[in-house]
Amino acid sequence: MAxxxxxxxxxxxxxxxxxxxxxxxxxxxxxSTLEQVAASAGLTRGAVYWHFKDKMELFHAMQANVLDPTSxxxxxxxxxxxxxxxxxxxxxxxxxxxxxxxxCPTLRQVLEILTLRCELVDPLGDTRAAIQRxxxxxxxxxxxxxxxxAAHGSLRHGLSPxxxxxxxxxxxGGLLHALxxxxxxxxxxxxxxxxxxxxxxxxx
Length: 204
What we know:
Radius of gyration: 19 Å
CATH topology: Tetracycline Repressor, domain 2
Number of helices: 9
Number of strands: 0
Shape: elongated
Largest sheet: none
Order of helices and strands: HHHHHHHHH
């Protein structure tokens, strides 16, 4: 019985997170309420508060629910020893991220919330830090792997790992915003792998 109760609680928690993602996407984070989330989930407000003390905690859970597994999948390639050249690992990791974005509608939805529907001047306090955390962690990882490329001798002479990492980080951010905001229509996605390949060739 205890195991069943734990499984039911886990399902309810996920149900709330899924509902929050839809509500945040529809209304924006600041304008959304836990009452709206509860209604969307088909639950009482009390059920939501039993799992999450406030909207900020729910926001963090929604973000981690999708971004953490994505980061693990990308990191597995970024730090893989299958590639002799660390630059090849970076290229594979970047392509994998955009492949996951294609395969996972919930990832796209969360990223649209974070980039397009999350007001930064708001009563949530640390929303900005929550949004920036995954990106800053990725920048640190990129610098680490570019450092390995420099030690390997494959990073272009005169290009520091820090500069290369920042350039790639900004490059990925630009690609992501172009996709999420559909600047170039649906014809842009097939060009991304070649765009990433060209970007990485300039680091060699």
